[in-house]
Design goal:
The chain has 185 residues and is mostly beta strands. Helix content is 0%, strand content 57%. It is built from no helices and 19 strands. The strands form 4 sheets. It has a 6-stranded antiparallel beta sheet with strand order 2-3-4-11-6-9, with no helix packed on it. A 5-stranded antiparallel beta sheet has the order 1-17-14-19-12, with no helix packed on it. A 4-stranded antiparallel beta sheet has the order 5-10-7-8, with no helix packed on it. A hairpin with a 2-residue loop joins strand 15 and strand 16. The radius of gyration is 16 Å and the shape is globular. The two termini are 27 Å apart. The relative contact order is 0.23.
Length: 185
């Protein structure tokens, strides 16, 4: 049986970083601490409030990021600047130096000793969920969110945990980010 649980914004914590603020939507394990860099999985939103910023370096962390606004340009390590448009997902090594040009909001997935993916679904697209320990959805636009035989009306910016005892398909009526993760051992 598929279930969709709305996660209250009252459970989120917001903190500052050098270029703006970050709101933690989920962190694992239960006793994890981002400040102490003790986590396997972290999902967050962030604002980039300055035109030029440097991301926090995170040794041993794989990061996935997607802009929620017009996009921004990232320069990762010694690489060339790369424009990341709205809804595109960029995966990179968190230990790299990352310079960001442009303001906006984004979604983040951080993995340390864990596996996972961040997938952005446009209106009408569907995604099959297979063998994930943790599945979450972030509604960018709002609309109906269906997961297997369960559905819920989502407001823009709402966050949900999706659970099922079998493989299911996520099908949102508005743009939605899907996080599918397996915790480390």
């Amino acid at each position: 049986m598929a279930l969709i649980e709305r996660i209250s914004a009252q459970r989120f914590s917001t903190s500052k970083w050098s270029g703006g603020s970050t709101t933690e939507l989920f962190i694992w394990p239960k006793d994890a601490s981002y400040a102490e860099r003790r986590f396997n999985i972290r999902i967050s939103t962030a604002t980039v409030d300055v035109e030029s910023s440097t991301f926090t370096r995170l040794e041993g962390v794989t990061r996935c990021i997607t802009p929620l606004g017009a996009g921004f340009t990232l320069t990762i390590g010694d690489g060339e600047p790369e424009f990341i448009p709205h809804g595109a997902v960029k995966r990179f090594n968190g230990a790299e130096n990352v310079a960001c040009a442009g303001r906006g909001r984004d979604l983040n997935l951080m993995l340390k000793g864990a596996e996972g993916e961040l997938v952005m679904l446009k209106t009408g697209e569907a995604h099959r969920i297979e063998r994930c320990e943790f599945v979450f959805a972030y509604s960018v636009e709002g609309g109906k969110l269906s997961f297997g035989d369960a559905y819920i009306h989502a407001g823009a910016g709402e966050f949900f945990r999706l659970t099922s005892d079998k493989e299911e398909t996520v099908n949102p009526s508005g743009e939605t980010a899907i996080f599918c993760c397996k915790a480390g051992k």
